[in-house]
Amino acid sequence: MASTFSKVLLAGLTAFFLSVSLLAPPAAAQAPASVNPTAQSVKEQQLLDALKPGQALSGRASIPNKNAATLIQPGRDWRAYNQETLPRLAAIAVLGALAALVLFYLLRGKIMIDAGRSTMRILRFGAIDRFVHWLTATSFLTLALTGANVTFGKTLLAPIMGAEAFAAWAGFAKLIHNYVGFAFMAGVALTFLIWVKDNIPNMIDVKWFAAGGGLLSKGSHPPAKRFNGGQKIVFWSVVLGGAFMSISGWHLLFPTNEGLAEVQWHATIHGTLAFVMLALILAHIYIGSVGMEGAFDAMGSGEVDLNWAKEHHSLWVKEEQARKGTSRISGAAQPAE
Amino acid sequence: MARMKFLCDADRCIECNACVTACKNEHEVPWGINRRRVVTINDGKPGERSVSMACMHCTDAPCASVCPVNCFYTTADAVVLHSKDLCIGCGYCFYACPFGAPQYPKTANFGSRGKMDKCTYCAGGPEVDGSQAELDKYGRNRLAEGKLPLCAEMCSTKALLAGDGDIIAQIYSQRVAKRGYGSGAWGWKVAYKETISL
After folding, report:
1. N or C: which end of chain B has fewer CB within 10 A?
2. ipTM (interface pTM)
3. B111, A255: Cβ pair inside 8 Å?
């Protein structure tokens, strides 16, 4: 009996395990051949192909440095721009501006005061105005020279100075650039505050530009208030350009945890805008010094020749003459004798 | 001469970070700087892979191209090194590097950058091989002692390979052929403009 029972049990168990094994194959049947461990695997090439321009391949890193999680940033656009396009653009902007100014000087000559110098002077820029101007001007030129050293130094200076001396100078220039940047930021902010009220564009500027600013022909002096259209362009370029330079420079000065693409943009904006502003400021320096008789006095002593003021800022002189209270006009009305 | 390269077999890397730790210890790397790091792609998702990444010692290296003081040089083994005496800590090499290798100790004012530090392929710097000055500035010069970079030498799964590019490419190709899959030679296309056909 016992053997019959065991036979039945064996048959039953066999049938049970057979049915189970038919429904679900045992572990032994899951041979490596039937499972693909790479079915959901990542492939570098696929990930790189999926990136949009400027994007980086990122993951997670267990160290606190957030930038460490960026694995590969494949683009070399910044390098190409920084090493090829930017120096070319900068050379065209700066040399182009210089060439244009030389050409202008040869064709037009120094712009003289048509009525000749008078004996009377008018206060154009007070001490605060001049302080703000020279704070911005000296800091800008310092930043321009130390900044241009980053773009052109290794090509122009390093072969002459030698690698060690040039690196020492470049390290010093970087420090100067970092510190003087704050003076420039202050200068730009003050420039905006003290002169914005006289720099709102209006119809007088349209007429001034229509007359070519009086630059192209002798004896032509389109009317202007305290600042003419050209000066307003310089003002807004300094204020807006200076603001962008300050923001981008700030990001380069204080290394933050933002992505590499953002830092590259800041460096690109900073370098490009710097040379555009330098080209513009060269024209500003020209017309404020060798290009025009009597112009430098405005930022030198602050007092300009009355005839100069009448020719270049006629409406402003009328406002000043009509002003009650302390007059800004000084000097003898008639020549002594 | 050999053309030295790194290759991380991401299908073997187990994200143990021992390469990171060994590197920091071997070279006495300053606090806050990691010459090597492990990045995990698809963390916690199907297809998760970890890649150990450091300076890839690129062909025609972008860092060297953008450096305003030309402080980079390439050795006969194609290892990209730099001089900390010339470096001014401007940050440009970091902006240009596809692998985020250059880092700067925060020593100067406003948190601005000190002299750049990056993976030297355990090959030191311009100083005399094995000198104290070299050790202080760049860490150990194992290559001059005939040894390979420590990170790869001590990798427990032999995921990270270092050595002549042709040889490690051959090893990797054989592995991929044998096991039937491979996620690729990470960074090779970007660093060397060539990759291993699998």
Report:
1. N
2. 0.89
3. yes
